[in-house]
Amino acid sequence: MNMKYASFAFSLLLWLGSLNYCKPEPRPIPELEKFVVKNVIHPSSNPYNPDKIELGKYLYFDPRLSLKQDTSCASCHNSELQNLNVGTPRNKIHNQISPKLTNVALYKDVFQDPHAKDLEDIVKDRLHSEIMLKNESVVLQRLSAIPKYRELFKKAFGSEEVTTERIVLALSAFERTIVSKNSRFDRFVMGDSNALTDAQKRGWEVFQNKAKCVQCHKGPNFSDSKPHAIGLSGVSDKMRTPTLRDVTRKKAFMHNGEFTSIEEAVDHFTRGGQAGATKDPLLKPSILSEEEKKDLIEFLRALEGETIQLEIPEIPKA
Ligand code: HEC
Ligand code: HEC
Prior knowledge:
The chain has helices spanning about 5-15, 30-40, 50-60, 75, 80, 120-130, 135-145, 145-155, 165-175, 185-190, 200-210, 260-270, 290-300, and strands spanning about 225-230, 240. By secondary structure, it is mainly alpha-helical. The protein folds into 2 domains: about 50-175, Cytochrome c-like domain (Cytochrome Bc1 Complex, Chain D, domain 2), CATH 1.10.760; about 185-305, Orthogonal Bundle (Cytochrome Bc1 Complex, Chain D, domain 2). Strands 1-2 form a two-stranded antiparallel ribbon. Helix 3 (about 50-60) runs antiparallel to helix 8 (about 145-155). This is Methylamine utilization protein MauG.
C-alpha cells in the first residue's frame, strides 16, 4: 500500500476516533475518493479483476440465477443502484428490510449474519439457500447454455466452466465496487474547508462531542463493524452498526424500518433509546438543543456521496 495513503488512513482514523475537534491539515490533492477505494480490500482469495467484476454485474441483475427465474440479487438490493433508496419492504426471506449493499466491503467482514466469515461466505449462503433454493445444478446448467455467459466466464476465469464458486467470486467482487464516495465531508477532510456549511461543521462537533455518536459510528465508514443493542422497543438482538454514508437518502431506518424520517432516527439516539429496552451501556441520552439536533442532521447530509453511476446491464440473451 502506498505510504501516503497508509499514513493518511491512519491519521484519519485517529482523527475520527478522537473526541476532540481539530482542524484538518489542508491537503494538496483532493483524493479521498481514492482513499475510500483503497480501503476496499480485494482479498488475495478473490483479487481485483475488471472482467470478473463485469461478470458479477450481469449476474447480480439476472433473475435466471434463481430457481424460479423470478428473483435477482437486485430484486432486493437495488436501491442505491437506481438511487431510489427506498429499500424493499419486508421480504419473504427475513422479516427485515433489505440493507443497502453500499460500502458492504468496508465493514471488515462483519455481517448482519454473525456466522458469515467473509463477503464470499454470505453471498454463497444467500445464493445457495435463498436464490437457487438448493437446486444448483439446474441453475448452473441454465447459465452454461447461454453463449454470452460462457464467454464472460472464460474472460474472467480462463475457462467457460460455470460453477457456484465462480458465481460467488464474481458477485462478491462486483459488490466490493459499490462504494459511496466524494461526499462533502470527504472533501472537507481533504482540506477543502468550504465543503461543509457552518451548520454542518457545528453538527460534526455535536456528533463527536456532545452526542458521542462517534463511539459506534467511527472510521471512514462511520461504523465500528460491531453489533450493539440500541434500545429499540421489542428488539433485544444486537445489530451491527451501519454506515451513515448516504443515510439521509433512506426512507426507512433501522433494520426493521421502524422510523420513517431521519429526525425520528436521530431522536431515538439522542434520547438514549427507548426506556426499558435492551441497550448498550455506550448509549446514553444527550441533552441537545433543537438547533444542535438540526446541525447534527445537516452534518449527516454532508455524508451523501456522489450518485452511484451504474448502468443496469442488459442481461445476456438465452
Ligand atoms: C428476497 C430479498 C433478498 C434477495 C433476493 C437477496 N438478499 Fe441479500 N439480504 C437480504 C436481507 C433482508 C438481508 C439482511 C439480513 C441478513 O443479513 O440475513 C440481506 C443481507 C445480505 C448481505 C449482508 C449485508 C450486510 O450488511 O451484512 C449480503 C452481502 C447480501 N445480502 C448479498 C446478496 C446477494 C449477492 C444476493 C443475490 C445472490 C442477495 N443478497 C439476494 C435480502 C435479500
Ligand atoms: C452504541 C452504539 C451506537 C451509538 C452510540 C449510536 N449509534 Fe446509531 N446505530 C447503531 C446501530 C447498532 C444501528 C443499527 C440499528 C438497527 O438497524 O436496528 C444504528 C443506526 C443508526 C441510524 C439508522 C441507520 C440506517 O441505515 O437505518 C442512524 C441515522 C444513526 N444510527 C445515527 C446515530 C446518531 C446521530 C448517533 C448519535 C446521536 C448514534 N447513531 C449513536 C449504533 C449506535
